[in-house]
Design a protein that fits this description.
By secondary structure, this protein is mainly β. It is built from no helices and seven strands. The chain starts with 5 loop residues before the first strand and ends with a strand.
């Protein structure tokens, strides 16, 4: 996968790893996938993919304990898919 890096996640998910997903790899996301969202000016947030556009140009993530947010190409959000 192009631009894919793998490294350990924080202590909140022992034994888990993440894969960095650039915009071109969002097509591999599915509802229910666990992700870490890094938005400018915010700490990393854990969440679950809620819905994704057919062309994967945008998707919704339900941030754990909060509401859902829209992620779209160009918003400079960094997405890491949690691998289990």
């Amino acid at each position: 996968m192009n631009g894919a890096a793998t490294w350990p996640v924080t202590d909140t998910l022992p034994g888990s790893q993440t894969r960095l997903l650039d915009y071109h790899n969002w097509i591999h996301l599915n509802p229910g996938d666990k992700v870490i969202v890094k938005r400018a000016g915010c700490p990393p947030e854990h969440g679950t993919v809620n819905d994704i556009a057919l062309d994967a140009s945008y998707f919704w993530v339900r941030i754990d304990g909060q509401s859902r947010i829209l992620i779209f190409h160009g918003d400079r959000t960094i997405i890491h898919k949690i691998l289990t």
